[in-house]
Amino acid sequence: MKKKLIVLTGAGISAESGIRTFRDADGLWEGRDVMEVASYDGWLKNKELVLDFYNQRRRQLHEVKPNLGHLVLAELEKDFDVHIITQNVDNLHEQAGSSKVLHLHGELLKVRSDRNPPLEIVDWNSDLNMGDVDSEGNQLRPHIVWFGEMVPALEEAVSITEQADYVVVIGTSLQVYPAASLMHYAKPGVPVFYIDPRPASISNLQNPLEVIPMNATEGVPFLREKLLKRT
Question: Domain 22-63+111-144, what architecture?
Answer without folding.
Answer: 2-Layer Sandwich (3.30)
